Amino acid sequence: MLRSLAHPPHLFLAVLLQPQGDHIELHQKRHGRRLDHEERKRKREAREVHKRSQDARKLLGAKGKRFANKRYAEKAQMKKTLKMHDESTSRQKVDDDVQEGALPPYLLDRDQTQRAKVLSNTIKQKRKEKAGKWDVPLPKVRPVAEEEMFKVLRTGKRKTKQWKRMVTKATFVGAGFTRKPPKYERFIRPTGLRFTKAHVTHPELKCTFNLDIISVKKNPNGPMYTSLGVMTRGTIIEVNVSELGLVTPAGKVVWGEKSANFVLLLPNLP
């Protein structure tokens, strides 16, 4: 029922005709990568220049022509990028400064210029757009004090040790979580404050859905609270949206477990 409301039937059938398999990405999301993936990738990229040099020397005929044309285009693009990054000396016309008194006749037709160092704004603008795309549309949230977030627990026979802390805010703990032995557990997350579902409001459908929380992506108060799964105002959480029948920007239907990031807007909580 939700799918028929969210998307017209003809659009849904048209999307079904497209290939739906993102098997590699799905496997990476479920099981992760090899532990030495980054190191192997770095070495592969380091070897790539030697392979490219060997191809440039040995390729003959049509393959050699195609390779040369490809490398020519790549180098031209590289030079353009480097030129955009470099500072260039430019001459700017002076319009603002109006001098008192009459100018001599031999200076009337001469434009006065000033030299200035100008950095290309194209790269700056692209960087700003890229950074702005992932900005959270929230004002700055009030930082939560450590005394408000944690409660000090006294332990030991004489209650003199104070190294344990109990979290006093709502938290998310994954399904496969196993507690440390209570004697060595520094941060205690009470069972009554653990949440596994979140109410997510869809802005277009004007509906609220009760969805499973997958993980806590970022807590604005710091990485320690993010690793503990503490959820306060402004926290970005990842939820499972497979029940909504959404369509990805590539036109693929979301069948299995799919995640999306949302920002917590808690009016009654700090």
UniProtKB/TrEMBL annotation:
Superkingdom as given in the UniProt entry: Eukaryota
Q: Where is this region: Disordered?
A: 28-56
Q: Which CDD domains match?
A: NSA2
Biased region (Basic and acidic residues) positions are 35-56
Which cellular component terms (GO) are annotated to the entry? nucleolus; preribosome
Q: Chief subcellular site?
A: nucleus
* Protein localization: Nucleus, Nucleolus
* A Pfam family that the UniProt record links to this protein: Ribosomal_S8e
Please verify whether the record's keywords include Transferase. Answer: no
What are the entry keywords? Nucleus, Ribonucleoprotein, Ribosome biogenesis, rRNA processing
Is rRNA processing a UniProt keyword of this protein? Answer: yes
Q: Which GO terms describe its biological process?
A: ribosomal large subunit biogenesis; rRNA processing
What is the annotated role of this protein in its UniProt record?
Involved in the biogenesis of the 60S ribosomal subunit. May play a part in the quality control of pre-60S particles.
Assembly and interaction partners:
Component of the pre-66S ribosomal particle.
Q: Which family does it belong to?
A: Belongs to the eukaryotic ribosomal protein eS8 family. Ribosome biogenesis protein NSA2 subfamily.
Protein name per its UniProtKB record: Ribosome biogenesis protein NSA2 homolog
Organism the protein comes from: Miscanthus lutarioriparius
